[in-house]
Every structure is written in structure tokens, then in C-alpha cells.
Design brief:
With about 210 residues, this protein is mainly α. The chain has a single domain, classed as Helix Hairpins, CATH 1.10.287. The protein has 3 helices and 2 strands; from the N terminus they run ααββα. Helix 1 runs antiparallel to helix 3.
């Protein structure tokens, strides 16, 4: 829709252009901060994944030894209390809510089964699988944060591109068109005033001649 070429509309378009430019700068800054946060979390996730793989390997190796030495651990596993669950809260990074997962663990620190009929291999398997659980919780928290950041970065990039490639060029074009129309009107008004002035001067000369 064409914009009426007035000085008021020109000022409004210039204000909109300044806001769009400021919005692009903010989007670009937000994107860069989110990317830095994402890269740090990706390094963290990679380290956690290596640790999870290593601990899983040790845990299953310990479990295999339990199966060999004790014929299995199913009965003893039933004495391990159920996990107390997880609590979830969030931290904000440039408006993006990233999860913080903590465990509600009622574990007292004592092995929950008796010593009768068990050996140190079962103890090793118990502790290794507890480490697995903790690391998996941390990995899930980190990977969820990475997913949220990646989505926010994509969304922010689209908005920044829209401002840079569509909104600002459209505003520039509108400003240029209004400016051109106003300048043309000023030129026309200048010519009109000159013509009126020349006509008035000619009439004065004609009147003076009649009196002479």
C-alpha cells in the first residue's frame, strides 16, 4: 500500500527504520550470545557422553562379574529403594529457558542390601550404576538445553534475516520514495511561486504604464 508523501509520514518511516536497525542489532547480539552458550554446552555434552560410555562399560563389566560369582543380582536389586525422582527449574539466557535438573535422592550413603551372600563385585556394580544414573541426568539436562538453544538460535536468525533483508530495505525504499515526492513537490512549489511573483511584477509594470 502506497504511503502518502507527507513530512509526518517521512518522520514515522525514519523512526520505524531506526527501531528496525536497533532490533536487528539486538537480534544479532542475542544470536551470538546463544551460539557461545551452545558451543560451551556441546563441549560439555561431548565430555559427558564420553564419561557415560566409560561408566556404562565399567558398570556392565561389574554386573557380568556379579553374574559369574553370584549367579545374578536380581534379588538384591529389589532391596534398592526407588529413586526419589527429579526436580526441574530453569535459568534464563537471553530469554531462553534452560533446564536445571536436580535429584530428590533419599539415599543415605549406605549400601541398601546386607552383606550375607554378597561380595565386593556386587558393591562395585551398585556404585557404578549409581554413577551412570547421575551422569545420565546431567547429560539429559545438557542435551535438552542444547535443543532449546538450537531452536532459539534458528528462530532468532530468521527474525534477524527478516529485519535485514525485508523490513529495513522496504523502509529504505519508502523513505526514498517519500523524500523524492516531497522534493518534487518543493520544486513544483518553488516554480509556482516564481511564476506568481513574475505575474505580479508584470501586472505592476502594466499598471504603471497605464498611469503614465
Amino acid at each position: 500500500m502506497a504511503i502518502t508523501p507527507t513530512k509526518t509520514n517521512l518522520m514515522a518511516q525514519k523512526r520505524s527504520r531506526a527501531l528496525a536497525e536497533n532490533g536487528f542489532a539486538l537480534m544479532d547480539r542475542k544470536r551470538n550470545i546463544l551460539i557461545r552458550e551452545l558451543m560451551a554446552l556441546m563441549d560439555q555434552a561431548s565430555d559427558l557422553q564420553r564419561r557415560v560410555d566409560s561408566v556404562f562399560e565399567r558398570a556392565y563389566a561389574a554386573l557380568r562379574l556379579v553374574n559369574i560369582s553370584m549367579g545374578g543380582a536380581r534379588d538384591f536389586a529389589q532391596s534398592v529403594p526407588a529413586d526419589g525422582g527429579l526436580s526441574l527449574r530453569f535459568r534464563s539466557v537471553m530469554g531462553v529457558e534452560l533446564p536445571i535438573v536436580t535429584a530428590r535422592d533419599d539415599f543415605s550413603g549406605q549400601i541398601p542390601y546386607g552383606l550375607l551372600g554378597t561380595d565386593s563385585k556386587l558393591d562395585s556394580a551398585f556404585w557404578e550404576f549409581r554413577r551412570v544414573k547421575t551422569l545420565l541426568r546431567d547429560l539429559a539436562e545438557t542435551e535438552n538445553a542444547i535443543f532449546r538453544l538450537a531452536y532459539a538460535i534458528k528462530k532468532t536468525q530468521k527474525r534477524a534475516n527478516a529485519l535485514k533483508n525485508i523490513v529495513i530495505p522496504n523502509l529504505d525504499a519508502a523513505i526514498a520514495a517519500i523524500t523524492s515526492d516531497l522534493e518534487e513537490k518543493e520544486r513544483e512549489e518553488f516554480v509556482r511561486q516564481k511564476v506568481i511573483k513574475a505575474q505580479k511584477a508584470a501586472r505592476r509594470v502594466s499598471v504603471n504604464k497605464n498611469f503614465d
